Amino acid sequence: MRPHDYLKEFLEDIVLVELKNGKLLRGRMVSYDGHLNLILDDCSEISEDKEVRLGKVFIRGDSITMISPATPD
Amino acid sequence: MRPHDYLKEFLEDIVLVELKNGKLLRGRMVSYDGHLNLILDDCSEISEDKEVRLGKVFIRGDSITMISPATPD
Amino acid sequence: MRPHDYLKEFLEDIVLVELKNGKLLRGRMVSYDGHLNLILDDCSEISEDKEVRLGKVFIRGDSITMISPATPD
Amino acid sequence: MRPHDYLKEFLEDIVLVELKNGKLLRGRMVSYDGHLNLILDDCSEISEDKEVRLGKVFIRGDSITMISPATPD
Amino acid sequence: MRPHDYLKEFLEDIVLVELKNGKLLRGRMVSYDGHLNLILDDCSEISEDKEVRLGKVFIRGDSITMISPATPD
Amino acid sequence: MRPHDYLKEFLEDIVLVELKNGKLLRGRMVSYDGHLNLILDDCSEISEDKEVRLGKVFIRGDSITMISPATPD
Amino acid sequence: MRPHDYLKEFLEDIVLVELKNGKLLRGRMVSYDGHLNLILDDCSEISEDKEVRLGKVFIRGDSITMISPATPD
User: Strand, coil or helix: what is G39?
Assistant: First the structure.
């Protein structure tokens, strides 16, 4: 199974997305493509002391460092 | 539905565009392409304490980190 | 109409070009191509407190963040 | 044997992955592709003084500087 | 006329070349190609307080932000 | 002889690899490819005051600035 | 004559190579290719106050800003 195949398992789950600029986003992953472009639904930008609601967000794939489930099991 | 298909839903809506250099733009999205190049109409650059009117703006796709609706519903 | 089609509307107009390094240029846009390479005529680099005349300038497209009219209507 | 062939030896092993932004991740490498995209299982981000559990993580290949075994033999 | 066609007008002229790292070079442009690689003859690196002679210089195109005539007419 | 042909001479030798992020690695070069991806065996990260053993390391080619023999002859 | 044709004139000459990270190397250029990958022989890294001998060095082309003769004539 290739790395991109694992993204399918993340679909509809709440994920954390870390961006190259250090920002952290949390939202429900509803779509992705081969460039790692993502749509996160109910997305928030989260930091130490606050959380900013963004709603539905398109994230450009080349801005992303890593994607992980919001609740490591 | 692929991420780029969701951009169609954003057309004619007021969106927030975050750039890789950290700047934040707000405007009505009137056009996009596969490289994520955008045209925002009535665009302003917004920051903590001010808002600078730019009018119609061409944004180079590779400068963009994410795009979200200005009013998360 | 695709984003690049809007650039045609900017031709012969005075535009502001913001570069990835944060610099701001103002000049008359006389030519562009699909890589967003530009020729600005009567171009100046503008900052808070001064304006440096550069004359005719070739700008490499991948240095550009955004292009907007100098006078938002 | 080409460099990518050596990655096969790392499969199912605990590896350290250093990112271009300086972060260090440790986890079990369960998948990789030709772009160096990785899936690390039981992944943690480790730093001088703490370790943050992330669970299963997709790492974008172009964020990576190097990959090495967690226990140099 | 495309942007690259204007470079032909700069040939044999003294030009200023601004690099992405902020450095400024001045020299006679004797050759260029489609990647914007340049040869500057009698080239100097110029800064506020000094000028360092470099002679004939090959400049890698992807290091360049912009090219303009040394004497805006 | 092209630059990549010289890499063959470095095979099985102890080399220094300087990364774009400024780090310096030393190890025995056992494999390379056309993207400059490398496998260094018995690799250590070396700095002014210490040396950290990493073992066998995969280095992503686009992270590399230069490769030189550990013992300039 | 295209910029890359001028590199042939630099062959076997002592050149200065400036890297994107600001470092300066000096050595005899014995090989280059279309990506601007270089082999410098008897190469040293030079700075204000010291010179570090590196021997034969492979320099990755995309790390390079410019190449010039060590002795501007």
Answer: strand
Those residues with Cβ within 8 angstroms of residue B14's Cβ, 6 or more apart along the chain or in another chain: B26, B27, B28, B29, B69, B70, B71
What's the rounded Cα separation, in Å, for the pair C54 and B9?
Answer: 42
What is the rounded CA–CA span in Å between residue F33 and residue D1?
A: 10
The fold adopted by the segment(s) G3-69 is SH3 type barrels. (2.30.30)
CB contact under 8 A, A32 and B67: no
Token digits of residue G52: 């570090």
Nearest CA of chain A to the CA of D9: how many Å?
Answer: 16
Model ipTM value: 0.92
> In the prediction, which pLDDT does B73 show?
63
Nearest residue on chain E to C19, judged by CA atoms?
E65
**Residue B33 to residue C4, Cβ atoms within 8 A:** yes
Q: Mutating which of G60, G64, G65 best tests the F interface, going by the most F Cβ atoms within 10 A?
A: G60
Fold of A3-67: SH3 type barrels. (2.30.30)
- Decide which of 2.120.10.30, 2.30.30.100, 2.40.50.1070, 3.40.1170.60 is the CATH code for F3-68: 2.30.30.100
- Tens digit of each residue's pLDDT (9 = 90 or more) over D9-33: 999 999 999 999 889 999 999 999 9
Q: E64 forms bridges with which residues in the sheet?
A: E19
CATH number of B3-66, picked from 2.60.120.700, 2.120.10.30, 2.30.30.100, 3.20.20.140: 2.30.30.100
Q: How far is G31 from chain F (nearest CA, A)?
A: 6
Contact E4 C43 (CB under 8 A): no
Domain ranges of chain B: 3-66
Averaged pLDDT for residues F43-67: 94
D73: helix, strand or coil: coil
CB–CB contact A7 D62 (8 Å): no
User: Could you tell me which residues come within 8 angstroms of residue C33 by beta carbon, excluding any fewer than 6 positions away?
Assistant: C61, E2, E3, E4
Taking the model in full, what pTM does it have?
Answer: 0.93
Straight-line distance from the first to the last Cα atom of chain F, in angstroms, rounded to the nearest whole number: 20
Name the residue facing D72 among F23, F31, F55 (closest C-beta): F55
Give the C-alpha separation, G54 to G73, whole Å: 26
pLDDT at D73: 63
The C-alpha atoms of residue C57 and residue C65 are separated, in whole angstroms, by 17
Residue indicated by tokens 């650059």: B45
C-alpha E68/C-alpha E65 separation (Å) is: 10
Interface of chain A against chain B, CB under 8 Å? 19-21, 23, 25, 31-33, 37-39, 43, 53-60, 62-63
